[in-house]
Amino acid sequence: MKKYLLSLCFVLIASASFAGSCPMLWGKVDIKINDISDENLKLKVQELRDEGEKAHSDGDHSKSEKLLNEALDLISS
Predict the structure, then answer these.
(1) What is this structure's pTM?
(2) Residue 66: exposure state from Cβ atoms within 10 A (0-12, 13-18, ≥19)
(3) How far apart are CA 2 and CA 28, in angstroms?
(4) Per residue in 17-74, pLDDT tens?
């Protein structure tokens, strides 16, 4: 029984720590978006950033991270 309780605690702690990475990612997007000169690219990045924030708010952290990383990839390319 102790093993199950301990495992549950680890899962809950891990979930909370992963959920915290979404705001860090959109913070990176917010900083780098100002360096984009192409308005079409800037709009696409802003759209992905906003969708990522909404997914985070809805509790879908994997989708949020995917969208925010996609926005960062667009900025880097």
Answers:
(1) 0.71
(2) middle
(3) 40
(4) 455 688 888 889 999 998 899 999 999 999 999 999 999 889 888 899 899 999 999 9
